Every structure is written in C-alpha cells, then in structure tokens.
Amino acid sequence: MSDLRSSKRISAEADDSSRKKARKDNDMDEDESYNPYLAHRQQGNGKSHHGVPSADSPFAGFQPRKTTAEQHSKVENLSDNAFTGQPHSQKYFQILETRRDLPVHKQRQEFLEKYHSTQILVFVGETGSGKTTQIPQYVVYDELPNLSGKMVACTQPRRVAAMSVAQRVADEMDVKLGEEVGYSIRFEDMTGPKTMLKYMTDGMLLREAMHDHEMSRYGCIILDEAHERTLATDILMALLKQIAARRPDLKIIIMSATLDAQKFQRYFNDAPLLAVPGRTHPVEIFYTPEPERDYVEAAIRTVLQIHASEPEGDILLFLTGEDEIEDACRKISMEADELQREVDAGPLVVYPLYGTLPPQQQQRIFDKAPPPLRKGGKPGRKCIVSTNIAETSLTIDGIVYVVDPGFSKQKIYNPRIRVESLLVSPISKASAQQRAGRAGRTKPGKCFRLYTEKAFKKELIEATYPEILRSNLANTVLELKKLGVEDLVHFDLMDPPAPETMMRALEELNYLACLDDDGELTTLGGLASEFPLDPALAVMLISSPEFYCSNEILSITSLLSVPQIFVRPANNRKRADEMKSHFAHPDGDHLTLLNAYHAFKGQSVNDSHGAKQWCHEHFLSFRHLSSADNVRAQLKRIMETHGLELVSTPFEDKNYYNNIRRALLSGFFMQVAMKESSGKVYRTVKDDQAVLIHPSTVLRTEYDWVLYNEFVLTSKQYIRTCTGIRPEWLMEIAPTYYDLETFDDGDVKRSLMRAAEKKRRKAAMKSDR
DNA sequence: GAGCACTGC
C-alpha cells in the first residue's frame, strides 16, 4: 500500500511553488517578445538592437508577429535569398510556383491574422493541404528567428517524416539542410547555429524539455499530427499548456486532422481554429449487408471480386499481423492465377507490408502494377496486404480500392497484472475514415467495408483510445518527474489515465528506488531518466558497475532494446534453431544474447563486410545487431557523461556469469517467477500469475527460479527471455521487495524462507571457522 | 513447442 500513501501525498501538494520557481528562472520579459536586455544574444545581419529589421535589410518594414502575406510574398519573390543573401536558384522559383498552388496558400493572410490574435492556435488540414511544409515557413517569416534568436520547432511522430519534410522545406527555402532548416531525431542532430526552423520527433522535444523546462530556445512550437495522440504528443500538449501560462511570448500551434478539432480547442481554453480543405478525391463507401463471420476469408473474396470486375486501379487490404498477411497473400495469388485461366482476368501481383519486413521488401510496394498479359488484354494490378502501417506511416499512390475488414492489433495494458499485450480489436470510426481516404489520393476511389453500416455507426468508437490510456506509465511518470511536474494527479492531461495505472507506475518506481516514499525523484531516479530506456533497464545499467560487469550489462541492455536478433524463417526453422544453439548458454537467454553479440562483434572486427554474410549464415539479424550496436554507443556516452564506470569481471573468473545474472536482478527483481511443485508451470512472484516459459528459450537446466524480461499474452501466458537465478540473491539484492513480512503464506514465501535459512547457516559456518 | 500492430527517446 506504500504506493497509495505516497501518491496521495503527491497530489496534496499544490504546484504553486514550482510555478513561482519557474517564473523566477524564466528570463523572458513577460509582456514583450523582444526584450532589449536580451539584445546581446541576438546574432545575424541587418537588424537593430530591438530585434526589428534595419532599413537596409530585405525584411525592412517587417514587424515581427505583425507581418502580412503580401510582405512575405515580396521577399519570396526577390532574386536573392533574404535569409542567406545568396542568389535564388532556378529550382527555387519552380517550387515556389507549386507552393502557391497548394490549398493552404490561399489562406496565408487569414492564417497570419489568426496567428497574431492568439497564443495558441488549432489548425486543421486534411491530407494534401500542404500544412506540414507551409505553415512552419509562414511562421518563420512572421517570427524572424534570425533576428529574435528563438527557433521555430515542428514535431512529428516519426523519424522518417521529420527527416523527409525537413529536406523538402530546405529545398523550398533554397537553403542547405542542417543550416537554416534542419531536423533533430535520435542518433542524428542535423541542425546548426544558423537553424531557424527545426523539424523533430515529438520524443526528441520531450527529451530537450527535461533539461530546459521552459523550452526557452523556441519562440513557436508546432505539434503536427496531434490527432495521432502518441504518448509524447499528449505529454507535450499538457506541458505546453502549463508553459504557455508562464511564457506569454511562446506561441503554440496544434495541427491535426479534422475529427478531433473541437476537443483540442476545448482543451486549450477555447483556442481559435483555422481549417483548410485538403486535396483529395471522393471515395465511395460500400458496406456488407450482413456481418461477416470470417473476416480474412471475406477479405480475400472481396479482393478477387474487385480484380475480376472493377476497372483499373490498385488494391489495398488491411489485415492485422504478419502471419495473417503472409497467409492471405498466398491465397490471393493462387486464386488470382485461377481467375486468369478461367475468366481471362489481368495479372495480379500481391505484396505483403508490415513493419518487421526488411526495408528492401517494403520498397517493392512502390513497383508499378504489371502490364497486360498480351496486347489488348485486361490491365494488370497490384494488391498490397498491409497492417496499420499503411494507415499512417506509409502512403502509396495509385490505390483506388481499399478493403477494410475493420480490425487491427492494438496494445492494451492491464494494470492489475502489470502486463501490456497486443489484441486484435475493432478499429475506430476515425481509423475507418483514414483507411477509406487511402483510396482517393490520385483519383476517385472505392472502399469496401466488411461490416454493416449499422455496426459502423453504433459499434465503432469515435477515435482510437490515445496511447496514454493503453500503456504502462512507469517510464512516463519518471519523465514527468524529471520534467519538473510536481503534482501528477492534477497534471492536466487531455485524457487522464486510470488512477490504478498511475498507482502501479508510482509503486514500480518506488520499488526501483527512482522515487522515494514521498514520491520525490531520487538521485537514482534522476540518473535513470537520462537514459532512453524503461526504468528497470536504466536501473540495471546504473547498478551494473557494482557487480563488476557494466560492459556486459550495457550490451545486454542494448540487445533488449532492439527487435529480436535471432531470425527464424518459416521454411527453415530447424536450421535456425540449430544455429541458435551454438550461442546457447545453459543459464539463460540473456547470456545467450550476449554470446551472439560477442560473436558478431568478433566477426565485425575481423571483416566488417563479411559480417553481413556471417549473420545470414547464422540466422542472426544484421540489421538489428547493428542497431543494438548503435544503441550501445549512445548509452555508453550517457554513462561516461555521468561518471558510470565501464568494467568487466575477467572472463576466467568463476563469477563472470554469476555477476551478470545478479546485475540483471538489480533491475528485474520484480519480474521473477518460481516453479510450481509439479510440472512446468511457474508462478510470478507477488502478482501470482501462472505462466509458462516461452518455447523459444534456451534454458535447459531445471531452474526453480527465473527472472524474465517480458510477459507475453498470446494463446497462453508466457514469460520470454528468461535467466535462471538463485532465491538467496533476491533478498540480498532487493531486500525491500523481498521483505518476507510482506508476503502471503504459500509456496513462494516458504521457498524464500528456506533460502534465507540456508544462507544464514552458511554465514554462521563461515564465521565459526 | 510459439508469433512481433506501430512509433519514439
């Protein structure tokens, strides 16, 4: 119950003190954007002491935050680039023409007026409106960061988007990427001292905020794709709402698709709204008259019907996961061949699409549809069978038909047993609309929904629950503490999570000693928040020098932060398992991962080109091992910055592996299971869930106690990536959690008591001698 | 003896 107590105390605190402190720390003038006392910070050419452009500047006459679309246009038309002083390229003027053709351009003046009238603006633009590329540029011309010294930031939920949009906008502004326009994502900061406009991932802005609670580098922050409601976007919105109250000079724009616009407006104290139409084609929607029993079968049938009877155009089918997709692809291909023979249908190529597919194979979806089999024959088409990845992350032009069975895999969190799992669930109305929209990108399209119209209207929820309601929040709570949020219960989130989820997170962090009993961030917690890791992993890494194995734990942590490195193709499972057994360590999967990594590194040192081939032969993922290497380098840098030593126990030492297993426990002592007296079933400590060790394990020794990395809920309850441990270690390494007083009577308690007794006797014998 | 929707730091 300690969690309840500590969280009550947290909520009882008013956040006045933090607000006052922040106000004092904040060096911005409250009433004026351009503080003369800050003039010394400003750099660049052609400006006066007050941040207003001088008479000889191309921006002469511009009053920051009072500019007009006409002024912008004039400067854009100049033969020289007003920001760099360089002559504009030919390409620049070509792009400028297409930019002025975008729907959003017509409303440039209207946008500026709204922007001037308010601190927070909600901007709604459909796909194809040009909002992501244009709005930030309009803001740059109005803010003139080259004079004010305050950047414009635009966040994206995904890295690729941040990178590609930044490149596009750099071209549009005729500047070099990384100079006036740049981007910042994990592993890559493409910005410089001249950067005015910065595209970045939402997670990256959150990281920055941990060290700059006022986000003082920015004059305007634009949150793009806010309707996606990622964890980071939700936290940023709440944070920005707070900061906006302290920093009247900070402007905020929330950009979103139409559906939730009013919800955003209400949340931001009735902020004004500007809507811009998109540029898409109409999509005709068809529903099934009766509910379908087997949606995969119905989907395959629909695809084949479209192919047999509808005019030219590619097909996009949404299914839920890899297996289902591969299976459907096979069936569609087979049936389509038959159609070709029987009714002279055109050729149909089928491509699977999902996130874990290697990038080269993902690229194939952009191949052109096949030509007719013979001259004058029916045209060919392609059919893409995809997960939700095609709903948001990837857009494919040329899609005319969408088949939507109405399901996707979604993460859900059960705080009672502290388990996140994936569940096939019905999609939301917003999702269904997004999917349908994929059919109208190049010409009018059709969307076949494999559910009834009544089901759409009555059974589908409006929008998918935001991620914050479906996640374990331990990491989020730690981040918020580091962000200086004192009062978590009254932190004004758009959709506050269930109290039980919050309690669980506080409890977990308290056990990990990241929060003290008063809910305050401890030194350990502060350090843990510096790492881009879940709290248990961060604590394990920070504790590892005490166990003389920080080098090894650093590697294991990195390997646990990337997708599975062991590859197991469906047609070659036996051989893959054989290869994996070469790396197997009898004490568990963590040590097996380490063995594979060490072998990979040994290979890379000798022959970096051969490493790829070597991985292929050994059924290891070169991509994921390289990415683990990348993560490792980042984590290592953070360790060095904070004076955490990188040490190893000599390999010849008999405690080399024991030290590693003990260090694993320093973070994962809450993820431990004990074998029941009979059979193969284990029970998790405290949560008391019956679990099986996942069949992918290398554990062969019959351990009574194991620690696990992951609890997976599929056909059964499994624990995955397991390592054997000794019960006496638990009480030694995590005495508070394993305080026997707190355990209910039962097998677990009895077994722990026996271990404690054995240990006492051993110690007594030692001291007798 | 099984499966990994998708992101992100």
TrEMBL record:
Stretches the record annotates as Disordered: 1-86
Reactions that this protein is recorded to catalyse: ATP + H2O = ADP + phosphate + H(+)
Example GO biological process: spliceosomal complex disassembly
Keywords: ATP-binding, Helicase, Hydrolase, mRNA processing, mRNA splicing, Nucleotide-binding, Nucleus
Location of the Helicase C-terminal domain: 299-484
GO cellular component, one term: post-mRNA release spliceosomal complex
Domain of life of the organism encoding this protein: Eukaryota
Subcellular location: Nucleus
InterPro entries linked to this entry: DEAD-box_helicase_OB_fold, DEAD/DEAH_box_helicase_dom, DHX15_DEXHc, DNA/RNA_helicase_DEAH_CS, Helicase-assoc_dom, Helicase_ATP-bd, Helicase_C-like, P-loop_NTPase
Bias type Basic and acidic residues, positions: 10-19, 67-77
Enzyme Commission number(s) of this protein: 3.6.4.13
Listed Pfam families: DEAD, HA2_C, Helicase_C, OB_NTP_bind
Top enzyme category: hydrolase
Role noted for this protein: Pre-mRNA processing factor involved in disassembly of spliceosomes after the release of mature mRNA.
UniProt similarity note: Belongs to the DEAD box helicase family. DEAH subfamily. DDX15/PRP43 sub-subfamily.
Protein name, entry field: RNA helicase
Taxonomic source organism: Emericellopsis cladophorae
